Amino acid sequence: MASYIRRRKFLATLCGAAAAWPLATRAQQAERVRRIGLLMGMADGREGQARVTALKQGLQELGWTEGRNIQIETRFGGADAGRIRAHAATRFLQAQI
What is the C-alpha to C-alpha distance for residues 8 and 66, in angstroms, rounded to an integer? Predict the structure, then answer.
């Protein structure tokens, strides 16, 4: 009877360790950095910078910090449709898999 109880304790300990192992591994991994490509249809002036700053503050309030878990790449196209299309075709807006 005593060996049966020891075996149960051993199995319970083994199962508990096996269940906790993935959690400990996940806790040690670095947080994934998300990329945000921001294409603005305005000039790189005060209003454009104010909007970018407001976006960053809003993201900060939601727990997203630039340099920690997000990377924001901003391009300003102004009123030039050709320039906006050129920025849109560049690598900065293409998804990474």
Answer: 49
Q: Which amino acid is at 87?
A: H
Domain boundaries along the sequence of the chain: 1-30, 34-93
Whether residue 36 contacts residue 72, with contact meaning beta carbons closer than 8 Å, is answered with yes
The CA distance from 34 to 28, in Å, is 18
Q: What is the pLDDT of residues 5-35, one digit of tens each?
A: 666 666 566 555 555 555 555 555 677 899 8
Instruction: Look up the pTM and report it.
Output: 0.60
What does the block give as tokens for 64? 């997203």
Terminal CA-to-CA distance of the chain, rounded, Å? 56
> Which residue in this structure is represented by tokens 């030039």?
80
